[in-house]
């Protein structure tokens, strides 16, 4: 048995859904698996499925449905006519850079007199600031168009108005209760905005402004929209799906120097680019500039018209990204130490660990704290806020990442009086506050978590789309699933539960053996599976285990060959596993036992030995104790049920019955490790042919002196004394022979008698058959162990019901 690391959620596929999937498959000529996935994701009608699969620019919404769009368009058109000086005011993350880039494309086409401004993350922080507005006024700027920012800038926009600057806000973040008094605000999340899709990224809102000003959707700019939308983790549904799909098509054919240079340094083949390449290859490099230096380097790359200049910028971004990775590693290490110390202090004070992770470090680079927060969530699964602190002023700037069920924006709103500034959405946010407010901030966030979250919310969840068998895990099926691309937030790559499979091999791979590669079989087919970051499970998976995998079906391309493989996100073994080391030449040595246990670092484990002499050997293995409880079968019987996940059977059990009772005594048993040589002291039960050979010998040579007869007959029949003694006892019970005056004599034959008529024969045969399982092949023995555990559980359940 091996527990999954997350809680699996697979909703049953009912008859009505099955009927809808069948109808979709028939109407749209879709593979059944694709049709079932469409139904599972809510596209269960022909029209909605068609739009999802094939929707293009014709399916984009009217941009003038956005509140504030008409006023924004009129103001920008006036700026064109009057040749006003206009400034784009952007943000330093990838969405902000993409939005700024798209707006430069637009304003260049409109012929505006413009420039752009992105604040420095460390020196200025997020959003509009008065110093930047004052500088804009000083050079004659009369109109500022914000992108991916501005919705919370109430004071700053009021100040701009005093300076004679009109502000058009385009943003997608959660609006505050009080909105700024801007000339126009375009944000689909405004309470009274009737726009049908609320999930646009900042660059998506900028695209809608471009569509309104140009009179048609500028499809040639969707590559930039795809970059910002994917990077900002926006849901790839509705308009976002259309824009990203079109954007990926643009990227595959792009001649833009910036994108080509970015792909080259990232090792990305533009001809086959997918959303994952953008998310993990392009976006981190674009983000790196704003995190460590200034985002204008990224805007310069995306707006470049010269290939050499673009290549130089891309090279610089790649170096910054590598530097960013090193900084993240250092801060993650420091943050983990800080958190574990905080948990230990809470334990010593008799208190639970805080429900929300709030950590502030002096000198931590505020440009990477969001990444650090994400990494800590992966490890601890708690809402996490990481802040960089100024040692002189005590001012803390940070980023937050959340878990399902904990709304960060709502939580920060509850802490409004403790914060200088904050913004974001349910899953991610940023904030600024002072050091003296950190304890109250942490306490308030923790209280909200305890109030909002249930016990189940603290367990990571994996939502599974469908259960499938090996017959579905083929290259053809993976190619069919490509109909659902692009994948991302809100339209994840299908999570499949693969069952009915057997583990045929497993090995660790990669640097420091961090990853796990599995070979699985089922229905006469073989498949490779890869599980990143799970190399430590190599010794926890037994050959031949019936394993269940959750993950994604993918394609492995190597040396021009393509084959299906399964990318595992979680796994489990639902039965007790057998680790069979009976064939190891030194399996019964104390050193081998010690080495095995220390390599696995097993918790809740025990060593079971045949007798007390083995305890002494274990406790002095290589001069070191094994570090686990060592007990005999009698010890275990006296204790009753004990908590034991891993049972090490060292030395051959006296009988199968003893091992069965031991298994029944272990509560929470996950695995049995056998360390004995099955060839030693193996029980030998004579065959009918051997009984016949002995009887014929007795017929020829009786009478024979009783004393020492077993040894003499064993020499003549190439047998053993104990086996001959047993057979003679059977013959005596069956009245084939008898003893008279110290001699063994044949008895008169009174009729045909079967060997099974002898009680000694029946008893020995029963014991032999029961104990033979201890030397049986691994599969037979594994099934027997599972059956003994199930029988024990059934017995316990019956006892509870009957009490």
TrEMBL record:
Residue span, RecJ OB domain: 464-570
GO biological process: DNA recombination; DNA repair
Keywords: Exonuclease, Hydrolase, Nuclease
Coiled coil (UniProt feature): none
Domain DHHA1 stretches: 355-445
InterPro entries in UniProt: DDH_dom (IPR001667), DHH_sf (IPR038763), DHHA1_dom (IPR003156), RecJ (IPR004610), RecJ_C (IPR018779), RecJ_OB (IPR041122), SSDNA_exonuclease_RecJ (IPR051673)
Superkingdom of source: Bacteria
Domain called Single-stranded-DNA-specific exonuclease RecJ C-terminal: residue spans: 647-775
Protein name (Swiss-Prot/TrEMBL): Single-stranded-DNA-specific exonuclease RecJ
């Amino acid at each position: 048995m091996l527990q999954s690391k997350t809680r699996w959620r697979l909703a049953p596929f009912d008859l009505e859904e099955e009927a809808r999937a069948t109808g979709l498959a028939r109407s749209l000529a879709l593979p059944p698996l694709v049709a079932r996935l469409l139904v599972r994701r809510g596209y269960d009608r022909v029209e909605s499925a068609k739009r999802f699969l094939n929707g293009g620019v014709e399916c984009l919404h009217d941009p003038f449905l956005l509140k504030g769009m008409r006023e924004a368009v009129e103001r920008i058109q006036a700026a064109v006519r009057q040749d006003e000086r206009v400034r784009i005011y952007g943000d330093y993350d990838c969405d902000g850079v993409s939005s700024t880039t798209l707006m430069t494309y637009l304003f260049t086409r409109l012929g505006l007199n413009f420039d752009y401004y992105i604040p420095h993350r460390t020196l200025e922080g997020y959003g509009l600031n008065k110093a930047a507005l004052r500088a804009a006024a000083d050079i004659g700027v009369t109109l500022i168009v914000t992108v991916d920012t501005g919705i919370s800038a109430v004071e700053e926009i009021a100040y701009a108005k005093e300076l004679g600057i009109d502000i058009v806000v385009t943003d997608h973040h959660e609006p505050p209760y009080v909105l700024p008094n801007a000339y126009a605000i375009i944000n689909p999340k405004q309470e009274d905005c009737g726009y049908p899709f609320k999930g646009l990224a900042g660059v998506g809102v900028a695209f809608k402004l471009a569509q309104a000003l140009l009179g048609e959707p500028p499809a040639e700019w969707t590559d930039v929209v795809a970059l910002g939308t994917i990077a900002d983790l926006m849901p790839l549904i509705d308009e976002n799906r259309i824009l990203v799909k079109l954007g990926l098509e643009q990227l595959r054919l792009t001649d833009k120097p910036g994108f080509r240079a970015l792909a080259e340094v990232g090792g990305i083949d533009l001809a086959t680019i997918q959303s994952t390449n953008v998310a993990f290859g392009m976006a981190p490099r674009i983000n790196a500039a704003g995190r460590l230096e200034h985002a204008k380097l990224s805007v310069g790359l995306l707006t470049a018209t010269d290939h050499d200049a673009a290549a130089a910028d891309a090279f610089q971004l790649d170096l910054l990204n590598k530097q960013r990775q090193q900084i993240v590693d250092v801060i993650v290490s420091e943050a983990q130490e800080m958190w574990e110390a905080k948990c230990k202090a809470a334990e010593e004070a008799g208190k639970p660990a805080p429900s929300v992770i709030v950590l502030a470090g002096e000198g931590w680079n505020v440009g990477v704290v969001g990444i650090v927060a994400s990494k800590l969530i992966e490890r601890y699964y708690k809402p996490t806020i990481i802040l960089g602190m100024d040692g002189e002023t005590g001012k803390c700037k940070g980023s937050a990442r959340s878990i399902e069920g904990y709304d960060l924006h709502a939580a920060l709103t509850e802490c409004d009086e403790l914060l200088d500034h904050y913004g974001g959405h349910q899953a991610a946010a940023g904030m600024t506050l002072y050091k003296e407010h950190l304890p109250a901030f942490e306490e308030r966030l923790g209280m909200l978590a305890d109030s909002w979250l249930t016990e189940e919310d603290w367990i990571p969840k994996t939502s599974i789309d469908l259960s499938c068998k090996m017959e579905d895990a083929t290259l053809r099926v993976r190619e069919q699933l490509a109909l659902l691309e692009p994948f991302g937030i809100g339209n994840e790559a299908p999570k499949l539960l693969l069952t009915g499979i057997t583990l045929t091999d497993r090995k660790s791979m990669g640097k420091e053996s961090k990853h796990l590669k599995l070979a699985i079989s089922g229905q006469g087919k073989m498949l490779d599976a890869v599980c990143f970051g799970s190399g430590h499970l190599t010794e926890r998976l037994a050959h031949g285990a019936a394993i269940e995998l959750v993950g994604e079906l993918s394609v492995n391309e190597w040396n021009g060959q393509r084959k299906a493989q399964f990318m595992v996100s979680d796994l489990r073994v639902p039965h007790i596993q057998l680790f069979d080391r009976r064939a190891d030449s030194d399996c019964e040595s104390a050193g081998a036992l010690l080495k095995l246990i220390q390599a696995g670092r097993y918790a809740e484990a025990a060593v079971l030995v045949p007798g007390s002499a083995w305890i002494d050997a274990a406790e002095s293995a290589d001069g070191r104790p094994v570090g686990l409880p060592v007990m005999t079968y009698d010890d275990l019987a006296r204790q009753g049920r004990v908590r034991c996940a891993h049972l090490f059977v060292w030395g051959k059990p006296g009988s199968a019955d003893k091992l069965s009772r031991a298994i029944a005594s272990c509560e929470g048993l996950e695995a049995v490790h056998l360390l004995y040589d099955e060839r030693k002291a193996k029980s030998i039960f004579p065959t009918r042919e051997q009984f016949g050979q002995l009887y014929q010998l007795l017929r020829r040579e009786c009478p024979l002196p009783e004393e020492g007869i077993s040894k003499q007959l064993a020499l003549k029949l190439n047998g053993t004394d104990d086996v001959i003694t047993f057979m003679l006892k059977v013959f005596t019970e069956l009245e084939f022979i008898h003893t008279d005056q110290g001699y063994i004599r044949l008895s008169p034959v009174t009729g045909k008698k079967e060997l099974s008529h002898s009680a000694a024969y029946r008893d020995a045969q029963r014991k032999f058959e029961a104990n033979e399982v201890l030397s049986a092949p691994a599969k037979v023995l594994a099934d027997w162990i599972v059956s003994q555990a199930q029988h024990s559980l059934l017995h316990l359940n019956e006892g509870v019901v009957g009490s």
